[in-house]
Amino acid sequence: MTETSRDFEEFMKQRETASTAFVNGDFNPLSQISTQTSPATIFGPKGDCVQDAEKVNDANAKGAKLFKPGSQNTFEVMHMASNENLAYWVGVQRSVVRMQGHQEPVPMDLRVTEIFRREHGLWKLIHRHADRLASGADS
Question: For residue 139, what pLDDT is reported?
Answer without folding.
Answer: 52
